[in-house]
Design a protein that fits this description.
Distance between the termini: 41 Å
Number of strands: 29
Helix content: under 10%
Oligomer: single chain
Structural class: mainly beta
Largest sheet: 20 strands, antiparallel, barrel
Mean pLDDT: 78
């Protein structure tokens, strides 16, 4: 199922970096009875860092989960599949959002018979964490639960200390995974332990231990440990982690730094009492936060190219290229990839064409086309606060006053929730306060857009 909603575009170094080293797990199945730990729900090996990041950010590596602009969300999406050299209608979706712009319901409709087909609902806690995702099928004129997940988050002193997930197996809810987090005296994450559910009990599997050189920066070393008997034993280490200074943000998420992919790091395996090089990874950034990740293996005392991942974004920060390559016979060879042709109307993503890499023809081929329509305006709490004292009265009868910070002039638009401009007027440069007359509009809720040298600011207004 395609999920049509915008995820947070800021990459989370912690989750991304955990994904970067999840390849470690693939060689450790024996420590978990054949299971693979997956703190973020995604398997990855070296060279698949970007694929993993894309999965968390966009929903799927295959047909894309879709990101719209910061302000506008589509209420409808029509999906076409590439069949016999043409686009064939496949399914239609109706999308519903909450006040924060989060998708809370996605309903699929059979476009040929105009009947319900599928439905997915989402729920969130007060911190914005997704707590529930339920998938239904339309059977005998009723919605029947077919699958889903539930998650609970435990916080201590405003820090995430435990995450527990369940899944629906078609008959009952079953415990799935548990993660426990500890923090050091500086408030940085110190460890993340993963448990799986077996024989009605939580079984410890793997642990990530984070070490810091500077308490205000992300970690410089990560240890991967497995439970052997009663002790946690270090099986692999990631050292010399370097971060792009420009991409390390100061805010926190779950008490963790928000930044981007590490600039470089080195992975080592144990050999007796020593550590030996296994592989290293480096990341190079370019326009629109695009980047290329290159891994090299340590072989016969030399570093040799191994894998390369390319992520390219457009000016709206939406994905346009995601490509995996392997270094073979002295050249880079594409092994998988996706391309996305995005069409915009201002900030609205109105169409997306997804192409997938075909290994036989060694070209990108059309796969899926999605057309978005019936856009809804979503305002952030920050935007609401910015204009709260500058637009009054609100609610309004016929006229309201607009007070700007400076007499710089500009343009004011009153826009319907569907995105249609209903009124547009120039702001005077000679007055810091100006009266706007909306007596001709029917009662309802509208979006006020203020275009000035400071940028575009928006506020929701109500006409009585």
């Amino acid at each position: 199922m395609v999920k049509f909603y915008k995820k947070n575009i800021a990459p989370i170094w912690y989750k991304v970096f955990v994904l970067s080293i999840l390849f470690l797990i693939l060689t450790l199945a024996s420590f978990a009875g054949g299971r693979k730990s997956n703190p973020s729900g995604i398997s990855a090996r070296k060279g698949e860092t970007t694929k993993a990041l894309n999965l968390k950010t966009f929903g799927t590596v295959g047909p894309p989960s879709l990101r719209t602009g910061e302000t506008w969300k589509p209420r409808n999406a029509t999906v076409y599949m590439w069949m016999y050299d043409s686009w064939d209608l496949d399914i239609k979706y109706e999308l519903i959002y909450d006040a924060q712009g989060r998708l809370i319901e996605e309903k699929g409709i059979n476009p040929f018979e105009n009947v319900n087909f599928s439905r997915t609902t989402f729920a969130f806690d007060s911190r914005g964490n997704e707590t529930e995702a339920l998938s239904y099928q339309w059977v005998n004129n009723a919605w029947v639960l077919k699958g889903g997940s539930k998650s609970t988050y435990t916080y201590t002193n405003n820090k995430l200390t435990q995450y527990v997930s369940q899944y629906y197996n078609g008959q009952a809810w079953v415990s799935n995974e548990k993660y426990e987090y500890t923090y050091n005296a500086s408030g940085n994450i110190e460890s993340e332990a993963f448990y799986y559910w077996e024989n009605n009990a939580w079984v410890p599997n793997l642990k990530f231990v984070y070490q810091y050189t500077n308490a205000t920066q992300p970690p410089t070393t990560v240890l991967l440990q497995a439970k052997q008997g009663e002790a946690w034993v270090t099986l692999r280490q990631v050292i010399d982690i370097q971060w792009h200074a420009s991409t390390i943000a100061s805010k926190n998420y779950f008490g963790l730094f928000v930044g981007q992919e590490p600039g470089s790091f080195l992975v080592q395996n144990p050999s007796g009492s020593n550590w030996v090089n296994y592989f290293r990874q480096s990341t190079t950034y370019s326009a629109n936060d695009s980047y290329v990740i290159t891994t090299e293996e340590f072989s016969n005392q030399n570093w040799v190219f191994d894998e390369r991942t390319t992520m390219q974004f457009d000016s709206h920060k939406n994905l346009v290229v995601m490509q995996e390559e392997e270094y073979t016979a002295g050249q880079w060879v594409v092994t998988s990839g996706s391309k996305y042709a995005n069409t915009y109307d201002g900030d609205k993503l109105t169409e997306l064409i997804y192409q997938a890499w075909d290994k036989t023809s060694k070209t990108y081929k059309n796969n899926q086309r999605i057309v978005f329509s019936n856009f809804q305006a979503i305002l952030s709490a920050k935007e609401e606060l910015q204009l709260a004292a500058q637009v009054y009265p609100n609610p309004v009868q016929d006229r309201f006053s607009l007070k700007l910070d400076q007499n710089t002039g500009g343009l004011v638009k009153v826009v319907s929730l569907a995105g249609k401009t209903l009124l547009s007027t120039e702001l005077s440069r000679s007055a810091g306060e100006q009266e706007i007359n909306i007596a001709g509009l029917p009662a309802g809720t509208y979006i006020l857009q203020i275009h000035s040298k400071a940028g575009v600011r928006t506020k929701k207004i109500t006409k009585l």
